[in-house]
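User: Hi! I'm working on a homework problem where we have to compare a predicted structure to a textbook description. Could you give me the structure for the chain below?
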Amino acid sequence: MKRSILVVAPFALFMAAGAAQAQFRPNLLNNPSFEDPLAYDFSDFTRWNGFFGPNATLVNFNTTGATPRTGAAALEMSITPAVGGGNGRDSFTGMLQRVTGLTAGLTYELSVWARSNPVVLNGAEYRIEWQNGTGAEVGRTNVTLQGILTPTYTQQSFFDTAPAGATQAIIVLAIQSFTGVQGANANTSVVWDDASFRTIPSPAAAALLGMGGLLAARRRR
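Assistant: Happy to help. Predicted structure tokens:
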């Protein structure tokens, strides 16, 4: 089943909900600015956990080398050609975190600041994977960022309503080298910082639905 979601520029959020109201909605993510150590063993899904695809010639997560937007750290993820051979194609890597205690029918905003580092020749994306209480996926919203990011941090944001049965969600930040010119070297690096996942109060959600200038993205299941 395909559904449409609403993708809104950051300033539209403030027009709809008000800057003060947005400021006081609690962020449901742990370690949203990547200041704390990241995990790779998936022993605790409520933390950021890194995943790596097959045939990755180089993937690099770095919380010290990437210039942060705020604080002392940012999240850097890269796929590049391997030294000594290999073009880095057909790989993927990313970070995910589970958020529990969600309510079906409520509207949520996923937001993150991101920049190219320095280029994105292949795929970059962020998404919500809605799940029920047993961990089964009941919906998914994916937004791609290739062709959008610049070397300067920009805020990326979209709104989605938790589908029937959803009580939790997996938040994913990822890049991949399946897209682009086949046979060409992969050279994709993105720096992420200051992520947030928040509920949208009902009046603000209604205002968002009535606003013009919204971009349509596709929901895939």
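For your comparison, note the following. Residues 3-219 form a domain with the Jelly Rolls fold (CATH 2.60.120.260). The chain has one domain: 3-219. Good luck with the assignment!
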